[in-house]
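Model it.
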Amino acid sequence: MRIFLGTALAALMLVINPALAETINTHTGTVEGITHNDISAFLGIPYAAPPVGENRWRAPQPPASWKGTLNATQFGSDCAQAPFPAGSIPGLQTEPDEDCLFVNVWKPAGAKQGDALPVLVWIHGGGFVYGGSSQSVYSGENFARDGLVFVSLNYRLGRFGFFAHPALADEGVGTNFAVLDQIAALRWGRDNIASFGGDPAQVTVFGESAGGMSVHMLLQTPLALGLFQGAIIESGAGRNESIPYKDIPSAAASGLQFSPAETAEALRAIPARDVVGNLSMATMGQPGYSGPIIDGRTILGGALDAAKVGLYARVPLIIGANSADGFPIGTDKDNIFSTFGKHESMARELYDPDGDTGGLEVATKVSADMIFIEPARAITRTLAAKDYNVWLYRFAHVGVQSGIAMGGAPHASEIPYVFDLPERRLQKLESEQDRAVASLMHQYWVNFAKTGNPNGDGLPDWPRGSANTTTVQLIGTDETKHVEDPRTATLDFRESLFNH
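Modeled.
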C-alpha cells in the first residue's frame, strides 16, 4: 500500500522546480524520484506483487508493470506489525500494512547506466517482528554522497514472514517468506540496479540484528548464490544454542496453535490485524509464533553449524557486535550467576570480580557475550580457517545515555554511525568524538563496498581475522585500533560452556 505521510515537502519541491525530478526506467515501468544536494532518491518501488489475498503465505510474486510514471517520492508502507508506544523505536514514517514489499534507492545525482557504481543493500533489524525501511536513520544519502548506489528493502514480519501450517501442505507447508522476500529484492536489484548507475556484479548486503541474522541466512541459502559479492553482519548472533530455530514440524505445530483452520482459504481469510496480534520482542516466545524455520531451502541450519561444514557463500565479510550488545531481562546478580550452575563462581570472578559491578551492566554483558559477541568471534574463526577474508569488529563508542549504566555501546547504537548520521540517534550522549567516530566507521563500510576490504588511506589499520584470532578492531570512544580483545577471558568461558 503506497502512502503519502511525511512527503508533502518532497511533492511541493517537484511542483515548484520540476528540474529536481529524475526519472529512471525499470523493467516494470518508469519511476520519478527527487534530487537534493546532488543525491537522487527513489522511494517505494514495488519489487514484488502485494503479498495479500491469494499471495499471503506464498513466495513473493513478480510485480505488475505500470503505464506512465510512478511517483517515487514517498515511502511505501512498512510491513504490518503491532503498534509501538508514541516516541519509541522504531519511528516509522508510514502506516504499516500487509501490502509492503517495496525497495528504496539512493544514488549520486546523474549516475546512469554504464557507471557501474558499487551497490550496498540494507536489511533492517527488529527481531523479525517490527521495523521498516522508512526509519530516518536508514537513509542512504551519505552512502550515495560517497559514490555508492544504496538500496533498502521491506520484508514480511511476524507470522506474515515466518509461518508453517498443515493447511498449507499442498503448497509446501510454508516457512520463511521473509527470507524469500529478501531474495526477491536482491533479484530486483540484479535486474534493475544498472539503470540507477549501479553494478549488479558488485553488491554488498548488510544488516543489523534480525537484519544481520538475515545475512547469515542469505549466505547459506542456494537461492541467493551470485546475488551479492560481499556481506556485513552487525550483531547478527550465529549460534543455534543461544537463538534456536525451529524445524518444520515444530513450526507447523506453532501454526496450528495460532489457528486451527483446515484450509488455506480459511487461513488467508483471517484479518491482518489478527495475524499481527501482539507480537513484539517481549512476546515473540508465545506458542503461536515460530520465528525463523530450518527448512533446508532458505535456512539450512544454525549459522555457525552451516559455516563449519562449508555451506556459506565464499564472499568477503565484516562481522561484529557492540560492547553492551545484550538484552538484560533481570538485574539481580545472584539470579544471573545462579544460571551458570556449577560454573557460578567462575562467572562471578569474570563478570563481577570486585562485587561492585552494577546489575544492569552484568546482565547486559552476560547476554551480549552469549547472543552476539562470542558467536561473532566463533564464526570469524571458522570462516578464516577456510581461507575466507573476514574482518572482526566491536563497536564500543558510548554515544547514548543508556550506554552508561549498561557499560558500553548498546544494541543497535552503531547504526547512526555506520550511516554517518549520528545526529539522528536516540538518547544522545554528546561527546567530541561522535562525528569522528561516525566518519571513520562509515568510511570502513564504504571502502568494503567498493573494494571488499575495509582498509584505506587515513584509517587505522584493520587486519583480517584468523582461525585462532584473539584480536578485534575496537571502534571506541577514545580511539579506534586493533587490539588484543579485552573480553577474551569471558568469551573463552562462554565458548567452553557452548562446547560442553
